[in-house]
């Protein structure tokens, strides 16, 4: 039987078919759907962990009992989980342990586009890289086998295009694994005290040499013989682009991108006149090939930043002199046509507090979540975005710098962070600020879900990934337990309440927590009958447009404000309106109202 699956769906299927028992992850685009799909298979325990480090450690614990375990997160998540990974390479595993790590070239939903092939080499663990959904499924199984054969975690590297593109996949049966014997006591192997770790490092180096020999024989590194005038070494999604541009060339397709098959690469290079490497982001393969003493070109013609695509690759081949005819410009670029700027949903509970923050001219340190979008026009409230949990830490650093160096900027400092990000890494940042006595103001946007990645549960939602009821972490109680006395809650839709609370907290000489409460719009159903509307009282001042709500737009022209400007009456799309009422609160003319019948509801 065959099905059309995305790369992430195929990984979930491959993990299920190859006997995975335990899976832990933190949601992050483009990896999120792996766990969402895996949680639906019988006989598998799947969970959302508070962060990637915890997910990695939980999977490691499961693996040491002898079961097959999987963990998954996006590329920046491996930065968080690097601590346990670097030592897991020393301890090794028991049941197969696979890390699905999804890179995001072109930063479709990320703060950077790091190339995690470099981290695989740093950790000295094998990395497989599929180019389509069938390979994603097959390599998931191979990764478990590799992990067990070489006593190491194995990484399955995905990229956005492979994770989200769909192709045909052959469906198989679940492979039942033998009942595990449980954890086996072995102190020198699993307790990484210095004396034990010193003896494990040579084991890691020896294993790497064995993996290099295996790389020479595995079929995932295969040679496609063609025109000997040009040889192309490539992997992952880049293979598809290169194959489309030059189908007749000779290809060495690498499914194992760390460690590389040195002898196979040398033999391939000897069989062609010109050697090229096609790869996204860093010259990872190219640099290693050059260190083998081979003449090779790659980043001379291909960009080091952003995604590749068939047209870009073809143009690079023309520049390299291996393709004679420049391809015609496509009439419609499916990857870049009709760009839509990112924006908060209509009725988003993050909009009101951001509007109020800008009004009081606060200095706002931001974090990773939907509220990151408030850095964009028209709100432009957030002024820093670094990584998860950094909003609170950076606000603390700013406050102490002011105290110590007399920094002239006297704006009130507010850190803004979502509920899921607070659980991820905001708690420790807040503990630092409290312990070191920073009078910073922290706004926790509690919308009861992990919104930016598609509404996944977290420790505050009261439900697990598998749909079971769970205790709800009490954010206010956690903050009070850390030593904060000023903890208050406001209605995210009440602009006056939000503004007054911000001004009061800014004047306080101690750390404070302001929690905004309203559910994420992804959890609600819109009702056009309750939508707000603009009356003829509207004078076209445009103040409501400053909220940046996608349901509000310029309607009919009503007058010329001056020789160059035409004023437009605001209009509201009733099919998009969430009936939050924030626009009505901003209107100085009282021109935005809700139907009386809807108010009664």
Verbal overview:
The chain is an alpha/beta fold. The chain folds into four domains: 2-215, Thiamin diphosphate (ThDP)-binding fold, Pyr/PP domains (Rossmann fold), CATH 3.40.50; 221-319, Rossmann fold (3-Layer(aba) Sandwich); 350-523, Thiamin diphosphate (ThDP)-binding fold, Pyr/PP domains (Rossmann fold), CATH 3.40.50.970; 528-600, Alpha-Beta Plaits, CATH 3.30.70.3270. The protein is built from 20 helices and 22 strands. A seven-stranded mixed sheet has the order 3-2-4-5-7-6-12, sandwiched between helices. A five-stranded parallel sheet has the order 14-15-16-18-17, with helices on both faces. A four-stranded mixed sheet has the order 9-11-10-13, sandwiched between helices. Strand 17, helix 18 and strand 18 (512-517) form a beta-alpha-beta unit. The longest helix is centred in the middle third of the chain and has 24 residues, at 194-217. Mean pLDDT is 92; it is low at 331-336.
Please tell me the CATH architecture of the largest domain by its name. Answer: 3-Layer(aba) Sandwich
- What is the name of the CATH class of the largest domain? Alpha Beta
Mean pLDDT: 92
How would you name the oligomeric state of the polypeptide chains in this document?
single chain
Classification by helices and strands: alpha/beta
Strand content: 15-25%
